[in-house]
Amino acid sequence: MTQLTVAPAQTAVPERPAVPAQAPAARGAAPGGRTARTRRYLMCPPTHFDVVYSINPWMDPGKPVDGALARLQWEGLLRAFQALGHRVELIEPLAGYPDMVFAANGATVIGGKVLSARFRHAERAAEGPAYLEWFRARGYETREAVHVNEGEGDYLAAGRYLLAGTGFRTDVRSHREAERFFGLPVAGLRLVDPRFYHLDTALAVLDDELIMYYPGAFSRESQGVLRVLYPDAVIATEADAEAFGLNAVSDGRHVLMPPAATHLMDELRERGFEPIGVELSELLKSGGSAKCCTLELRGGPR
Questions:
Q1: What's the CA gap between 21 and 33, in Å, rounded?
Q2: Between the chain's N and C termini, which has fewer beta carbons within 10 Å?
Q3: Is 292 a catalytic residue?
Q4: 183-223 pLDDT tens trace
């Protein structure tokens, strides 16, 4: 594994009218020179969403969840993607797996190749095989993971590198597995704050050359790696991170994210991005937001 130190038969959703909290602007180049690229995403409806166990600090089974509101908020994210011209496909949720709505955790897809997820906690164990079967049925090249990894929760494709989180969920041995399978150098990053248990809660890829992240979520060594690789990164505050502002989805110009991360939204506007606030407060009760709900399909069968 590359060591980076300081001294790297589908079901498409029909198009629907857009009703995001902030109406997206027209596609193309933004005033700051940012250009959106059409993406393909996989999402899972929150049919069975609830908080009935606790596997991260955000989850409290004692707090009630409004399932109807969760569905409405999830549909708002779906419509925002469609309004921006992105294609969204759906996987059928499994009964008894309330966190399956967090599609980003289900696999990692790069260049049409799919590395399955292998979940650390038994409560989510069946999700990995369910997502893997979805890809196999559609003709993707797949690999069943040997080591524990939680998909795009801890693997983020960023231009020349695959950024790979570890510390709470994904086994560091999985980094070598991913590097060999995808043929990309892996930059391993250690998370140290249990509130930010997945990489996608502490860091978001904005385009091939730029990221945003919260330094306090990472070990000192990993902070050094990020400074070297991304000296111009957008730096989030602790308040941004606690609002799950880094659990965001960018198409290179538009950034869909929780509206409560106001400082981070201002920083993105300064850099020429167009942040779009999408309220997912019910899903946040399980420790997830826009990125958690979204698995990008990079290449492969259509």
A1: 24
A2: C
A3: yes
A4: 999 999 999 999 999 999 999 999 999 999 999 999 999 99
CA 70 – CA 161 distance, rounded (Å): 34
Q: Judge whether 198 counts as a catalytic residue.
A: yes
Q: Which of 175, 198, 254, 293 is catalytic?
A: 198
Q: How far apart are CA 183 and CA 88, in angstroms?
A: 26
- 90-112, pLDDT tens digit by residue? 999 999 999 999 999 999 999 99
For 18-57, what is each residue's pLDDT tens digit? 334 443 444 455 556 899 999 999 999 999 999 999 999 9
pLDDT number for residue 2: 47
